Amino acid sequence: MAGRTASGDIARTVPIDFVRAAVALAAARGVDTEGLLRSVGVAPDLIGQDRARVTVEQMTRTVRELWRISDDEMFGLGTRPVPRGTLRLICFGVIGCPDLGAALARFAEYHRLAPGLPMMTTMTERARARFTIDVSGLNDPAHLMTSFLLASAHRMMAWGIGRRIPLRQVDFPFPRPVNAADLDLVFAAPLVFGCESATLVFDSSVLSSPITQTEETLIEWDRNAPADLLTRREYGTTLSEQVRRILSRGLTGAWPTGEEIAQCLALSPQTVRRRLGEEHTSITRIREDILRDAAIAALARGEETVEELSGRLGFSEPSAFRRAFRRWTGSPPGSYRAGV
């Protein structure tokens, strides 16, 4: 009941922006948008709320529905359609490569067979590798597809070699957005906006990492798509992720204090505060995010009343929970209840 996913991770939420873009695309195709939203479990009224958020499960259902509607891996936003199943076939052709560098080089060669995919290139500069996606041809005014492609590429590369790929920098070819804090969580790296290209920067030594996946694990990944791309699966973590994991114990017991968190990390409380500040967060903010995400996930499941949820999350009374929820999302808890 603590809002955990099937993998055991504490539930996370993401801004509603992508769902909003999906609705706009569906509307342009004459699709019943209210029916679309209800089929993925999102209340239609939330589309107009800038601070609204959805669960990863709702996001996954939205992407699948958008794929079904458009029959296009690029959701109809690319220079030309990329029929469903194209990426799956390309990945079967890449999975046998000896290492990540060879896999990326072979993937780039497939662009001639799937010209609707953006051109992706990898270059090394001293000890750094730069993986760049040419998004110049995308119909992406909200820049959501650009962020989606960068995050997907990062997740897919990490999945291919079976370990986390720490990013040194991520370049975005658009101004800093209002949801930059969420991008910070997605990439856990310095973000640079207003650049000439969409680029992931990481240590070039990673390119020699062997591909550890097989056709069997690729089939399983494809069966779950896009859940594995949307879910944050780190093989090693930032300090904020470690703090989040420790703090999440508060959903089923007492909330750890700052001193207890520092002790678990073998750091001083001052060092924890300083390093979290460098990651643009704090213990208080992480705790609030955990409560927000757990509340949204529980409301989406619809298994508890607001009163029950309020008590489980440790609020003194339902009115205090309602006020906090409005502060987090801009909407009342009832807006997120399943079936609304």
Number of domains: 2
Main pleated sheet: 5 strands, mixed
Please state how the strands of the largest beta sheet are arranged side by side: 3-4-7-5-6
Which descriptor suits the 3D outline?
A: globular
Radius of gyration: 21 Å
Q: From the structure provided, what is the oligomeric state, counting identical versus distinct chains?
A: single chain
Q: What is the mean predicted local confidence, pLDDT?
A: 87
**Continuous helix count:** 15
Would you count the extended β strands for me?
A: 7
Low-pLDDT runs: 1-9
Rounded to the nearest angstrom, the distance between the terminal CA atoms is 21 Å
SSE pattern, N- to C-terminal: EHHEHHHEEHEHEEHHHHHHHH
Q: How helical, in percent, are the residues? A: 40-55%
Structural class: alpha+beta
Q: Estimate the strand proportion.
A: 5-15%
